[in-house]
Design brief:
0% strand
């Protein structure tokens, strides 16, 4: 049993790193592109965040369901709804934290994103492990 928990933990970390990488690559690419397009920085990072978030959540759902927790059955509708609800809730919190770090604490976009994403990662693990894919 300990081996299974350890293996699951390693898979979760790998998927988390991949999800975070996808999220950041899309975020940074969009932020850069929007800056080049002349979109004001106050808006550019927020739009970039939303696009990156949606893409990362789709990847995370499938990777967590099939690779990390290796679920093939169950109530897919409930799992999908719960997974997206958790991600949207934690994503909104992460977005608000990003705005707080950037707009109020005057962090640059990347450190603000790193801090908000770290908090998001912890919340999503707890929700996935103990509520969605239990």
């Amino acid at each position: 049993m300990k081996k299974n928990i350890l293996e699951e933990g390693v898979r979760y970390i790998i998927v988390g790193v991949l999800t975070t990488a996808i999220n950041y690559i899309v975020y940074a690419g969009c932020d850069f592109l929007f800056e080049r397009m002349g979109i004001p920085p106050f808006f550019s990072y927020k739009i970039a965040y939303l696009i990156a978030f949606v893409i990362a959540v789709f990847f995370a759902y499938f990777a967590n369901k099939y690779l990390v927790f290796q679920k093939s059955g169950g109530n897919r509708g409930r799992e999908l709804f719960s997974f997206f609800s958790l991600r949207i809730g934690s994503g909104i919190l992460s977005f608000l934290l990003l705005m707080f770090f950037v707009d109020f604490l005057h962090f640059t976009h990347t450190p603000g994103w790193i801090l908000s994403s770290g908090i998001n990662l912890v919340l999503n693990y707890i929700g996935s492990k103990f509520f969605i894919f239990k």
